[in-house]
Amino acid sequence: MRVANKVALVTGAASGMGAATARLLAREGAKVAVADMLEAEGQAVVAEIEKAGGTARFIHLDVAEEAQWEAAIGTVTSAWGRLDILVNNAGISGSNTNNLYDTALWDRIMAVNARGVFLGVKHAIAVMRGQGGGSIINLSSISGVVGQERIHCAYNASKAAVRLLSKSVAVQEGPARIRVNTVHPGLMPPMRTSGATADPVFRAKMLGHVPLGRSGEVDEVAYAILFLASDESSYMTGTELHVDGGYLAC
Ligand code: NAD
């Protein structure tokens, strides 16, 4: 029970790494708000958690919409009285296009992957300051550190924004005992919105740059998030955890 009695909100929790994180945090004792735009898939994650004896509820949230953030955080604090852990995990891929300079795609990726994280941080710290602290984990990527072919540069730019946004808030909110860290997954199972990065030929090429020689599993990222969410990482803020099989070490 590594996060016993804590209250968590995980965005993009209907799928992939967000769902794995929601399940793991609940298994380790947290009450978990499963926030996503995909209602049926999100409700299924809630049902799984409850079946295993945990506590969860689904919250409809488009992370790019500020009013929805206000409502989501309000729902969590009304139901459970506080917010200890925010995992800003929701995201969309930049690899599902043939036009790597599409302006509309730039706007959408930045709205979800960068603005969405900013809004989550903004509305979470308002609650966390009043309760004496909290832990925020923002999902960046190896793509937030290096450039890659066949991926719209907005994806890399949005994930790099998450890195520095997180360090900035870590510095500013340290005195309020709010910790902010980033997790950087490497080659993972494709996102729902993946294009090129779901292509087996492209994935095989990327695998050539992974010293551990395989792609990662969603639980391997969830465990890193759990560590940063728990008090085990109480002296860590503004740091970056690479869960990438060594990709960034090359
Ligand atoms: P996924 O596509 O399986 O899950 C993403 C979830 O985010 C989905 O449930 C989706 O509905 C939700 N979402 C998308 N837009 C949203 C919005 N506007 N508001 C609320 N929810 C929204 O992807 P994943 O692989 O689990 O990725 C999770 C995070 O990890 C993302 O931020 C992604 O950029 C990052 N990441 C993924 C990989 C990878 O290879 N899969 C690698 C590095 C980083």
Automatic annotation (TrEMBL):
Its EC number is 1.1.1.47. It comes from the Bacteria. InterPro entries: NAD(P)-bd_dom_sf, Sc_DH/Rdtase_CS, SDR_fam. PROSITE patterns: ADH_SHORT (PS00061). Signal peptide: none annotated. Keywords: Lipid metabolism, NAD, Oxidoreductase, Steroid metabolism. SUPFAM superfamilies: NAD(P)-binding Rossmann-fold domains. The keyword Lipid metabolism applies. One of its GO terms (molecular function) is glucose 1-dehydrogenase [NAD(P)+] activity. GO terms for biological process: steroid metabolic process. Belongs to the short-chain dehydrogenases/reductases (SDR) family. This is Glucose 1-dehydrogenase.
